[in-house]
């Protein structure tokens, strides 16, 4: 369901999908669906074509999931292969390739771009982008296509610059209000990952801000990805951000105090500090106790963000694996270690609690876990 005054659905892309194994694809889709994705996108590879593999992937998804599927490709053979298998959405057609697809079923949803990739034409000016989108809309509608989505192209901050691309979205919205253009209005495509992936800043705040812009401008559909480590959990962040902003829009208030929050590192509540006498307090700021090896062995900790699990591996000092524990709570894992009497070393127990707490935090936030050696 894409249209005015509806919460925008989220497309989650599997990057370089044709070159991934079936197991990796299924794992990623499970994670995306659990995170709130509405559409799974088969992300293809520039300058490589895999039409047969595309067919296999669409069948794989259909056989294992009840979810909408999109194909992200500009290659004719890949798009046609996906259409033959009943794909639900095509990304993307532009001024350079749309004539190759005029024979497609008229009811298939298609995202259109203001570019001509074949001729390396990528306009920067907002007014040119809008004119190109209007032109392509007219061409495809005259050919009978009804379900079109316009992508003015959201770009990366600083270079090439997000403000210019946002201006294109604002201009499109202004232009379609004019009587001459009203019949050309399409739902808008908002490629959020173009911003979030290319900034070394925590994704949660960026997702929240872009979701507010998307809801305020009544975007039709949002596109994101969890390709790099820093993006883990991004789909869930975006989903919750859409909920918060959508509720705010219809309550006519800022996105605050609605019982929905997307905080990770920060929050709204604070601790009340008691009054106490600091006269005899012991300062431990510079305290560095020496390390005493545990005669029983040592622990290795790992976090699996896809299965939502923490792995605790206990080795002898001869590097022989003695015990493996799997869970998702620091408290239950640490209590099981003590119950099994794997260590009685006080320093080791302190270290165990500290690392397990860090591992649980990383599991909850999507932050990569690195064990403190």
Tag the structure with descriptive keywords.
three-stranded antiparallel sheet; 373 residues; 10 helices; TIM Barrel; alpha/beta
Short description:
The protein is an alpha/beta fold. It has ten helices and eleven strands. The protein has two domains: about 10-250, TIM Barrel (Alpha-Beta Barrel); about 300-365.
Arithmetic mean of pLDDT: 95
Number of domains: 2
Distance between the termini: 50 Å
Oligomeric grouping of the chains: single chain
Tertiary shape:
globular
CATH architecture of the largest domain: Alpha-Beta Barrel
Structural Rg: 26 Å
Explain how this protein is built.
With 373 residues, the protein is α/β, with parallel strands linked by helices. It has ten helices and eleven strands. The strands form two sheets. An eight-stranded parallel sheet has the order 6-5-4-3-2-1-8-7. Helix 1 packs across helix 2 and helix 2 (51-64) packs parallel to helix 3. It starts with 9 loop residues before the first strand and ends in an 8-residue tail after the last helix.
